[in-house]
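Two quick folds needed for the group meeting slides. Do the first one here.
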Amino acid sequence: MAKIVSRIIKTRKAPTPSAPYSQGVQVNDIIYISGQLGTDPSTGELVGNGDVIEEAGRALDSIKGILEEAGLTMDHIIRTTILLADIKDFGRVNELYGKYFTKGTYPARAAYQVVAVPKNGRIEIEAIAAAGGIEDQAKL
């Protein structure tokens, strides 16, 4: 049986969890990033006074920081899930979201409207990334 190697990923570039979960967990070559709100890592408070774009940018910056701690970039993300307080915000969030990735290497994604986001936020984003060398088969 293959050996499974796990490690917890922690960084100051993302908010410290206020509940029993980790910012990220790496299991072999897969990194699971917990849902990130638009929370300022230094204050623990939501940014943007209800502005979904400011919250989305902060959440994506937190994900980026967690990946950097693991030695990876946003282009290592293979899947994201976006939870929105209002699906009508999807178009605006999508425009910002696309700027965080190299064009043509976008991850798989799902987006949902939910009844509530923690801390009365407007958005939460979680991600799964793959470590190691990523080859784009389309370019071979």
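Then this one, please, same format:
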Amino acid sequence: SWTAMIAAYAQHDRGKEALQLFEEMQMKGVTPDEISFTAILDACAKMAALAEGKLIHVLIVEKGFGSSIMLGNGLIHMYGKCGSLEDARMMFDLMPEKDVVSWSVMMSAYSQYGCGKEAVQLFQLMRLRGVMPNGMTFVSLLSACSHAGLVDDGHRHFVSMVKDFGMHPTVEHYACMIDLLG
């Protein structure tokens, strides 16, 4: 199928081919669905193709998928990977509903650009809203603390992950702690 090919191109860092196929699909009269939009957003994120990602965002809204949590998460990820933290945060703030992935992806975007304090604040807001963190949330949070030099915050959240949330640290969590303390 079209979507499988687009996803395969995106997964194998062949974003230009994914974008070409996405255009061809539409020219042949095939309407993109949530899954094909997710795949093409991933391709845009991997290529840091902000202009193309913004066009895809417009198309998502035009096709009536503007309130999709999955696509909202994909847009946050794409904007973050493209270095547009303002657009990522605007997308996050405008989402009518958020899941744990929404929060984690926004923290990850902050982490990528050394905005550890913003990630920690977002984590606190997430907890106030009653959203339960998962392992990915803590990887994003610990990575953000590491990139911003927030050693005490990172250590506190690592301990909390185990003590307060009963999570068993993974290799990724330990790698973040090594980076944090290194």
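Slide caption for protein two: Residues 18 and 33 are 15 Å apart (CA to CA).
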